[in-house]
Design brief:
This protein has three helices and four strands, in the order βαββααβ. It has about 90 residues and is an alpha+beta fold. It has a four-stranded antiparallel β-sheet with strand order 2-3-1-4, with helices on one face. The mean pLDDT is about 95.
Length: about 90
């Protein structure tokens, strides 16, 4: 299993609007991907410019397919300048 966790940090209202506008479709498409076990992006109530991100994929291949799809998406284009602070952990079992 491959897990990603971290934050998406908006620096402006424009970036926040990009997340709000494009996140629903990004979440829907990701959750439909083969091998996606869990995908959640939640805006912090006490820090509305920060989003907590949690992802789990069945294996490295599924995670890489997700990364490839995401790189070519509207989401990636519209949120390209937003700071991401993620860590990825692979569970070999």
């Amino acid at each position: 299993m491959v897990s990603l966790s971290g934050t998406l940090i908006c620096a402006s209202e424009e970036q926040l609007r990009a997340v709000l506008d494009h996140l629903p479709e990004h979440m829907m498409l990701t959750r439909r991907e083969p091998g996606c076990l869990y995908f959640e992006v939640v805006q912090r109530s006490h820090e509305p410019m920060v989003w907590d991100v949690e992802e789990r994929f069945v294996d490295q291949a599924a995670f890489e397919a997700h990364q490839e799809r995401t790189r070519a998406s509207v989401w990636a284009e519209e949120t390209r300048d937003i700071v991401r602070d993620y860590s990825v952990v692979t569970d070999p079992s």
